[in-house]
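G.,

No rush on this.
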Amino acid sequence: MARRGRRTKTLRKALAAVVFAVLGRGLVAAARLDSRVRDEVRSWPAGTVVTLRIAPWGPQVSWRRTEDGIEHLGGRDVQKPSLLVTFKSVDHAIPLLLGLKPVLRAFAEHRATVAGDLALAMSFVRCLHAVEGYLFPDFMTKRILPRPAERESSHLAAYAALVFRAARIGGDAT
């Protein structure tokens, strides 16, 4: 029985790692396609690093604000992120990552902790809401977003933009 539990936990961590990879690229794509996300990310100081992590040894995803864009760092270890959001366990993270629970509810239920600048955390949550609006279908976003998803580009454009590693945010999204 314990073996089955370990296998299930391993599968959940693998699922979380896949979702983190898509989310990592999704934020970059949203910064490229959506002026609201672009403006939020522009407000972050150059060199800002944001990391989402699952405790104690789960997967993680990080982004770095560069002078001319945002870079997806993937799951590599970042020494001291400017903002660190840590889910207490993979079981706490999965409902949020799969769009079953809203981001704000996860924080309200103490499923995650935040270390770093609170203003940056709120900006990041606004970015996550926009990314969820692109990645999830409308029937899901109605449940998890505080208001209906407003998109400046189509789902298809967002999915296509996932293949790019970095987005320039200094200019237009063309």
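When you get to it, here's the other one too:
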Amino acid sequence: MPIVILARHGRSTANTEGILAGRRPGVALDDTGTSQAMGIGERLRGIDLALAVHSPLLRCHQTLDLALDSWAGARPPVHPDERVIECDYGAWTGRALSDLGREDLWGRIQSRPSEVTFPGGESMIAMHERVVGAVRAWNAGLGERDAWLLVTHADPIKAILSDALGQPFDRFQRIGVDPGSVSVVHYPSGDSSPFVVTVNSLSGQVRGFVDRFTGPAGGPEPGGGAGHTA
């Protein structure tokens, strides 16, 4: 199974305004987010991408386009995928985070997200199941040492990472995923567990994280190996 490079979209206008964007249409990258998206592409240079997948929301589409432009490689097949869209926050969409923090539901989102369904929206466990299922479906069509890029949102990325770490879903809030960050997961063949290579990486070349799984040896080394040196 392949290597998945998870990138969160760059900072958006909703991020700077302090509102919960959710699936609200027209939420675009701000100037910082544009720079972050281009930075993702620069960090991916030297990696052969088998394909790129993105949430259909504008900020993810923009991030992927800018990243691939600055990546400067042969553009891979690009696929929008509704399964990796942001969680549907229902009536919470577009509200200020400072107001939402006073809602009774906020505490359960942090401590017991598996029990949370947003008013008029989606349950967090449903979000978890669809994004993890999407990754597995894309993985199934690729070779063991293929690398591919997924540009999506913080909660979907945290759900994917939590699943790869073997955590109960209620612990997924322990993971931080910043705008413009990159995380890398290797999915080995057979019964081996996924290997989380890096989480919330904000600088440096990503190739070193990927090469250790695409080179002749492949996979984690006994003792931990020499680490990423690129």
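The mean pLDDT is 92. Strands lie at 3-8, 49-54, 78-80, 147-152, 182-186, 195-201.

Enjoy the weekend,
O.
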